[in-house]
UniProtKB/TrEMBL annotation:
This is DP87 protein. Keywords: Disulfide bond, Glycoprotein, Repeat, Signal. The gene is Cotd_3. The lineage of its organism: Eukaryota, Metazoa, Chordata, Craniata, Vertebrata. The keyword Transport does not apply. InterPro entries: Fol_N, TB_dom_sf. The keyword Signal applies. Residues 17-39, 44-66, 71-93 form the Follistatin-like domain.
Amino acid sequence: TCQTVDDWPTCVPNKPSCNDMRCPAGTMCQVVEDWPKCVPNKASCNDVRCPSGTTCQMVETSPRCVTNKPSCNDLRCPSGTTCKMVESSPRCLPISQPPLVCHVLGRW
């Protein structure tokens, strides 16, 4: 490119950029210290297919398939019980009846 240097038009080399680079698969161009460089792609959960019963979560800087934590959505409770989480596990517990309350008016 032509630039004015000390009031004179001068041809100067183009600064290298990622437009001039072709990176191999699994890498991408990134300018490092003013120079284009092919660096490994950052892994993400978009690149991972997890088996059934697991979901992808980023662990530190890597995607990992982690076992799903059980929840009340995974449990069918029999009649007369309801699901409650007990120490991070779903449990079928009896539906508690409201306590009987006796109101005694004016007899204290």
